[in-house]
Design a protein that fits this description.
Elements: E1 12-16, E2 19-22, E3 27-33, H1 43-59, E4 65-72, H2 76-88, H3 92-111, E5 115-125, H4 129-135, H5 146-176, E6 182-184, H6 187-198
Antiparallel strand pairs: 1-2, 2-3, 3-5, 3-6, 4-5
Length: about 210
């Protein structure tokens, strides 16, 4: 009986240059989207946002996946920062007030679950079977040498990544019209995202994109 590792159940082969490569050869890019307080908008603004989002969805010629990550907010770094500031404080009154504030924050977060939400859009791309076979030497031809096969694989990846970038630009432009800011995650951010997905019990720092969006 062979033991199966956790990695065997994960469909991800690797994350390269900000692109998720799945075991079946298809690729994914991940965009992080800002939140939008829809309830505070006026009726006209809500209607305009809804219309723009509807137009965006209708304009897509490829599928996308929306993923919402909801996590309990880790307040410990903020508490640690306050405690450091309290130690540095020379004014006794301010020190007492800071101490009471820390106690209030701890009691409040222990009795109430404060959740943080992150919004992501996953964009897929898979090269056609014919294109893939052509790169690898044809349907019935001889198997390409290892160096040629490696070169073809690199070229195929670059072509597919170009297609993904074009799709990402379409999604970014469409959502920006609805007032939503979008940023593409890099390799480290994607790895961190999937680490949190597969390790939900661990509290880590929030995912921050390269432009500082959280």
């Amino acid at each position: 009986m062979t033991k199966e590792t956790t990695q065997q159940f994960v469909p991800i082969k690797e994350v390269r240059d900000g692109v998720v490569v799945l075991r079946d050869g298809s690729l994914r890019t991940v965009l992080m989207a800002s939140s939008l307080n829809f309830a505070l908008k006026s009726a006209d603004e809500q209607e305009a946002i809804t219309s723009q989002f509807q137009n965006f969805l209708n304009s897509l010629e490829f599928s996308v996946e929306f993923y919402i990550q909801s996590r309990r907010l880790d307040i410990r770094p903020y508490i640690a920062l306050l405690e450091e500031r309290m130690k540095e404080q020379t004014n006794d009154l301010v020190k007492i007030q800071t101490h009471e504030y820390i106690g209030f924050i701890k009691n409040f977060t222990e009795s109430t679950d404060i959740m943080s939400k992150n919004f992501f859009i996953i964009i897929p791309y898979a090269a056609s079977i014919f294109q893939d076979k052509k790169k690898m030497g044809g349907f019935f031809g001889k198997k390409a040498p290892a160096e040629v096969e490696k070169k073809n694989e690199a070229e195929q990846f670059e072509e597919s990544r170009t297609q993904l970038e074009q799709r990402s630009a379409i999604v970014s432009q469409g959502l920006s019209r609805a007032g939503v800011r979008v940023a593409m995650l890099g390799t480290e951010e994607i790895i961190e995202l999937f680490y949190k997905i597969f390790n939900p019990g661990e509290l880590e720092k929030p995912i921050v994109s390269d432009d500082g969006m959280q």
